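As a representative case, we now present a protein record of this kind.
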Amino acid sequence: MRLLPRSLFGRLMLVLASGLVVAQLLSTAINLVERDSALVRASGMQPAQRIADIVTLLDSLSPVERQRIVAILNVPPLVVSLDRTPSSEASEAAGGAHAAMLAAVLRATIGDDRPIRVAIGGTPPDWVPGAGRGRGQGPMGGGGMGGPGMHRFPPTGISFLIQVRLQDGTWATFDTQVAPASASLPWRALLTLATLLAAVLLLSYVAVRWVTRPLQLLATAADELGRDINRPPLPESGPVEVSRAAHAFNTMQTRLVRFIDERTRLLTAMSHDLKTPLTRMRLRAELLEDANLRRKFEADLLEMQAMVTQTLDFMRGLTHREPAQPIDIMGLLESVQADNEAMGRTVTLVGRVVRPWTGAPQLLKRCLSNLVDNAVLYGKCAEIRAEERADQLVIVVRDQGPGIPEVDIEKVFEPFHRLEGSRSRETGGTGLGLSIARNIAQAHGGDVRLRNREGGGLDAILTLPWNHESRAPDGPVAVGR
């Protein structure tokens, strides 16, 4: 199982998306921590001032008056109690940095170095105001509690337990809590971060697509170049690197076209020049009195002429392209069958193709003729099987010959390669038929491959992909006759 995408676009998107997601998560975590610290500071400043005022007031009162004043000041979220035993949990060390910060604010506000204990965390117990007022009972065991109502602290949030020693040694305990709305997750901020992440990912997608699209166009152009050497050149626009790559590709295509044209002109001239001496040799051969010798000369001359013609056709490649048009495949196969039967060969046709295929009819007919020639020459007869599949057209040419050794399956497609050493027309010609057939198939986006059958015989399989033009035509259909 591959975890990384295979395309450059997918890998760039994976790297960018992973980096953005990690960065946003870290940013969210840092913001939440900073927000909590800010909440504690903001929540501590206002209670610290109020606690300092209450401490100053309680210092100036007698114990009896303190109880009365505390009962009045017990208004949530700040609850005051007296004579409560100093808690071991309430210390600057227990609360950490927040407790130390709040204790420092209290000392600065009160203005002396009296003992102060602070604890942060948890949810304080229910507070029943007026219950036990005057008995020194508070919300955590202290006094100042009484009254008929039940008042609860908010069920969630950050609670503070603050104990300050008064001047006469009495400990005043203060319980307060951050509002639950402030303690909850900042959904609006999280939504903002999520929106920012989505926008950045969208922009990254557009940017990566913009960067990788020229590579896709270059790959497509390189693939089409193998099918049509005269395809339109790539536009030399965009960034410097892209325009340079497009310019280099167009230069390569121009050089290839020039090389093929020069080679074709050279071979055409050679073919034209060879016709004259071949014609003279044929005329002189007819003047020979020895019939046997004359027959041998004529056979050699025919073989030379065939070699020149087929070599020229192969070296020309497919530079001379006929226009593509819808082809009636069954009509074309019946034409190939009729041509071979006229030469006394046994060729049968099996299957049916209804859908027209768009291509060059004369080239396709030559490809099929070469495959049939190869089957008849080596297998004495040929059977053509046509099959219309969803994604491609498949034509199989079968023979009843001895087959080909597996090591030579691909070698026979090489120019002039033959399994037997002679160049006699009676034993297989020049060895260019399969090469020309594969060139024609590949020029149409298909291929030709060979396969030995169990029990003997060889299958030449021609596969041609359907294209967007392979549909029911509005005009006439070519049959390649």
Remarks:
- Confidence is low (pLDDT under 50) at residues 122-155, 421-425, 470-476.
- Residues 325-465 form a domain with the Heat Shock Protein 90 fold (CATH 3.30.565.10).
- The chain has three domains: 8-183, 226-320, 325-465.
- The longest helix spans residues 8-59.
